Each structure stands twice: as structure tokens, then as C-alpha cells.
Amino acid sequence: MKTKLIFTSLLFLLASHLFAQVSFVAKVSKEKLGVNERLRVDFEMNQDGDNFQPPEFNGFRVVAGPNQSVSNMWINGKRTYSKTFSYFLSPTARGTFTIGQASIEIDNEIYKTVPIDVEVVAAVDIPKDGDNTDIASQGDLHLVAEISKASPYLNEAITVVYKLYFSPETSISGYRVIDNPSFADFWSQNIDNNQIKVQEGTYQGKPYLYTVLRNTLLYPQKTGKIQIEPLSLDVQLQVRTNRRDIFGRPFMTRTNRTLSSLNRTVDVKPLPLEGQPANFSGAVGTFNLDVKTNKTKLDARESLELSVEISGNGNLKLFRPPSITSPTTFEVYEPEFKDRVTTTESGMRGSISENYTLVPQFQGDYTIDPVIFSYFDPKSGTYKTITSGELLIEVEQGPVASTPATGSQSTYRQPVVMANEQFKYIKLDSNLEAIDRPRFFNSVAFWSLFTGPVLLIPLFIFIGRKQKHLQGDIAGQRLKKANRLAKKYLSEAKKNRGSQTHFYESLERALHNYLKAKLSIETSDFSKERIEGILLDRSVSPQASSEFINILKSCEYARYTPTTEGAIQLDYDNAVEVISTIDKQITKA
Fold first, then answer.
1. In this structure, how many other beta carbons lie within 10 angstroms of the beta carbon of residue 408?
2. For 152, which of 25, 156, 325, 401 could close a Cys bridge (C-beta 3.0–4.6 Å)?
3. What is the CATH number of the domain that holds 163?
4. Strand, helix or coil for residue 470
5. Top-confidence residue, 332 or 500
6. Mean pLDDT, the chain, as a whole number?
7. Where are the beta strands (DSSP E) in 206-345?
8. Could you tell me the CATH number of the domain that includes residue 307?
């Protein structure tokens, strides 16, 4: 009996020791959340401790906390104790972030929690705020994206206006952009409103104040339904509290809110095939054509300037002016492109032009054929064609062709008839006389070689200082190096811009070859999520990584859907920019 009692006592002491083990853990309300949601983090312990140290919460802003709660219960003679420190966090950007280790001191021992990874994705339509209704009710705010046209044509301008609606009891003091829409299938340009101008309006039938934060101009580059990602903001505001002063006026408190607009979808219509001119190059809008020269009379071997200018409203940056057809006896140099386009809330407006230098080789009267330009007018839904007049060029002085070619249709270059005395100035008989060799000493050559190095010293000093200054410009050197690297890998894609299939195959191959060279791995066998994860691990920003993946997706989509010359140029420019950005940010393993 005594032995049984001793055994029971030892078993009880052992069980008491096991139950007394310290537990200190971190819990999150969700491991994946939208950038417009809030995260609740609880640090729980089963014994009371001191010197609690929270983590840094990198990638998040603390909205509320720490809130402390204690639970101490006795059930059937057994004590259950729990103490919790709670925080409510708001993301500051997209990406994967780590909730670091928190620490607590219990019985002179330091205990730490296990780190937790949390993924922040694009904004969600219905955000949840970590089971904290007090935070969710701070301020009556709504961020709305208004689209000027829900069903535009391909390459027709549409505008997205971002408005912030708020109640009269709420005061806005500023905002910061957390997450920008990528607009991967659009040519886009933001027009930010630097001054907050408050206006009166209604939202969902109720009176509100609102301000226009941004206008974004979009030109869709593919047909079908395209989703416009939400814009997410961190808004600083002042809201009323339940406390009042002696005069009955409510106290105001400063707080932050994360807002996101809803996902919007536009249905892009393809341009009609019926009635499409053969020379149509993708121009959409309302345009004028002007072809002019700086002279109509000149001599052979003298140059003239010819300009082809397209002006008006439309997608001016997404196509080139039509080419000219010149007489075969004219030398034509590569045209110089000029862009005088401004971007407004209603679209692009201005002019683009190509300026040619032409040099006639023989005298005679020549005709430069009319230039034909076709565009699609989205207002009338029809194609329109503009034709310039003929240009008559009179070449007065110079060699004469055996058969005069006065038009520009001939593809046969006439042979040049040489005049009998054309080379009369060349003497066939020479009268050479011997001359005495001059002395080198005290000659011009002697003094030039003697004083030349001394005179070149200031030039060498200037060049040395210039090179030292350029070497000190580390940022500039890195930018030039990154741009040269991008163009090196994309040279093949640039040559294939005339063929959609070959261009996108070359572009995708160039992107994988770039990563293969930088990372020393075969990325063509990896998924896009894996590639994006590798870039983030190498310190590439989430925005640059996302843009790189969007270009890879465009390469895949373009194999199955038709695209335009403007979209190809846009994808090429985006690829050059993103490779340059990644090359400046990427770090070695």
C-alpha cells in the first residue's frame, strides 16, 4: 500500500511537470490577404511573463495594438492560464513578408515565437479586417474607378477616373499609393492630380464630398474582355470620436485607412474587317495629312527636304506616318522621326512626322506620287482615307540621263551618259621636276614635333578629369550598362518586329536567356511563379518582377491572338525597361 502511494505521488509530480511546460506561439488571422485587408497577429503564452518584445512587422503598418487580454480559469481543480498580445496590421505593398520572432521572459528564461510568412496579393472586392469592427468603421470612405467607355474599339482611347468619396464628417489630409494597376494589355499614362480639390456629389444615392485623385489614359492593345486591376491607397484622415469638448463639439482623431477600387472589366471590340483599306496601319482617331517640301526647283546633287506629317487626336504614339514613293533617280536617306504629341485626359493630340532628305542625280522634271493615309474613326465606326496631292520637282542643272525618267513608277535606273569632255580636267601627261630635300632641323615639322606634346598636356588633363568625373558617376554608368545589356539580349526580337510570331518567340527566348546568364540556371523549365520567386529572392522589387512575368504572359497570349504593330513596339519598349531595371536591382546568390 505504501509502495503504491509513492508510485502515485511520483506519477502526479511528473504529470504536473509536463503540464507546466511553457508555450509561447504566434498566430495570424490569415496567411494570404489582399493589400486592402487587415491582418490580426496574436502572441499567446500559457504563463505570465515580462519584457515582451514584438517583431518589426516589415511590410506592414500597425493600425492598432498591442491589445492585451488575460484568461485565468479553474476547472475541476485544474488551472488554465492564457495571456495574449494582439496587433492589427495593414499591408504597405504586395509581396511575401515575414512576421518575425517575438520574445518574452518567463522565469528568467527567454522564449521566442516561430516566424510566419504572410502573402499579400492584389486588392479583393470584399475586404475583411481581422475581426476588429472598431477599425473597419473608422471613416466613411469609398475609392471608385469610373471608366469613360465600357466597350471601346481596339486602340481607342478610354479614361479611368479615380475618385475618393468621403462623408462631410471626415477630413482627408493626404494619401500614398500602395499598389498601382499594371495595365498589362493597355498603352497607359497616368495624369495625377497634385492638388486635392473637394467637390460635392452623390454616391449610391447619398450626399458625399469627393476629390479626383488621378486620371489614367488607356489604349487597349488586344480584343475581348480585359480586367482593370484595382488601385490601392493608404489614406491619412481625421474622423470624429465619441468624446466631446465642453462646448459639445466632438474630438477628432488621426488615423489611416487602406482603400482599393473594385476590379473593372472593359469589352474591347475588334476593328471591322469590312472596308478595311490595304494600307491601314492601325491608326485610330481623327487625323489630317500634310505633305510638303522646302523647295520645288533645284539643281542635281542638291538636296531638298520632304515632310510627311499626321496631326489630330488618336493613338499617335502607336503608329508611323506612311512612306513616300520617290523617283528612281533620287537618293533617299533614312527619314528623321519627330514626335510633338501631348497626353491629355481625353487622349493623345498633336502631330508626328517623318522628314526625308532627297537628292536628285539628273536634271529633268519629276513627280512624287501622292501619299495615301488610312485611319479608323471610332465615332462613325468607319475607315477614312486621305490622299495628298502630287509634288512636282524641277531639277534645272546637272547631268542628263539617256532616257529621262520624270515619274516615280519606273523601277529601272537609267544609265548615265558621259559627256566627251567630262574628264577634261584630268591631265594625262605629267611634267615632274626634281626638288631638293629640305633640312629637317628648324623646319615646320621639327618645331611641330618638338612643341606638340607640350601643347597637348592641357588637353590630356581635361580628358583625364572628364574620365574621372564619368567614373564617379556610378549610377549613370550602371544605367548605361543596363541599357546596353537589355538591347544586346533583345537585338533578335528587334529584327523580327515585322513578324508577330517570330517577334514574340525571340522576345520570350531573350528574356529566358537573360535570366540564364544572370542566374546561371535554365529558367525555361520553370513556372512563372517560380521565376517571380527567384527574382524576389535576388532583391528585385515586386513591381519589376511582376512586370517581367506580365511580358512573358504577353508572349504566350500573342501566339493565339492577333495584335498590332503598336502593341509589338509597346512590348519591346517594356522589355527593354524591365531588363534594365532588374539588372540594376538583382543581386548575386
1. 20
2. 156
3. 2.60.40
4. helix
5. 332
6. 80
7. 206-220, 224-228, 232-244, 250-260, 264-268, 285-293, 297-298, 304-314, 330-332, 336-344
8. 2.60.40.740
d(CA 559, CA 479): 32
pLDDT category of residue 405 using cuts at 50, 70 and 90: low
Looking up residue 118, the CATH number of its domain turns out to be: 2.60.40.10
In the block, cell 488571422 appears at 29
The domain boundary, picked from 379, 395, 411, lies at 395
The residue segments making up the domain with residue 536 are: 474-585
Q: Are 267 and 151 in contact (CB under 8 A)?
A: yes
Q: Is 524 helix (H, G, I), strand (E, B) or coil?
A: helix
Domain-located, residue 529: yes
pLDDT digits (tens, 9 = 90+) for 220-243: 999 999 999 888 888 887 766 667
Buried b (16+ CB within 10 A) or exposed e, 77-103: eeeeeebebbbbbbbbbbbebebebbb
Fill in the amino acid letter for 202. Answer: T
Residues 115 and 150 in one domain: no
pTM more than 0.90: no
Closest CA to 393 of 285, 512, 455, 302: 302
pLDDT digits (tens, 9 = 90+) for 197-219: 888 888 888 888 898 988 999 99
The Cα 544–Cα 119 span in angstroms is: 17
Residue 118 grid coordinates: 504572410
The reply to whether 464 falls in a domain is: no
Does 472 have pLDDT greater than 70? no
500-519 and 542-557 are packed helices; what angle lies between their axes, rounded to 10 degrees?
Answer: 140
**Which cell numbers hold the place of 483?**
541599357
Query: Whole-angstrom Cα distance, residue 316 to residue 338?
Result: 11
Of 374, 340, 377, the C-alpha closest to 355 is 340
Beta-strand runs (E) in 406-458? none
Contact call for residues 391 and 293 (beta carbons, < 8 A): yes
Question: What are the CA-CA distances from residue 493 to residues 14, 305, 506, 562 (Å)?
Answer: 73, 32, 5, 17
What is the residue type of 55? P
101-115, 161-175, 463-477, 526-540: which range is least confident on average? 463-477
DSSP element (H, E) containing 154:
none
The confidence band for 481, taking pLDDT boundaries of 50, 70 and 90, is: low
Distance CA 88, CA 133 (A): 11
Helix (H, G, I), strand (E, B) or coil at 124: coil
Is residue 281 included in any domain, yes or no?
A: no
The total domain count for the chain is 4
In a domain, 216, yes or no: yes
**387 bridge partner residues:** 372
How many CB atoms are located within 10 Å of the residue 489 CB?
21
State the pLDDT at residue 132.
46
d(CA 14, CA 22): 15
CA distance 108 to 102: 16
Distance CA(374)–CA(288), nearest Å, equals 10
SS3 of 255, please? strand
Burial class of residue 155 in the structure, from the number of CB atoms within 10 Å of its CB (0-12 exposed, 13-18 middle, 19+ buried): buried
E strands, 29-134, are: 32-34, 39-45, 50-53, 60-75, 78-91, 95-99, 103-106, 109-112, 116-121
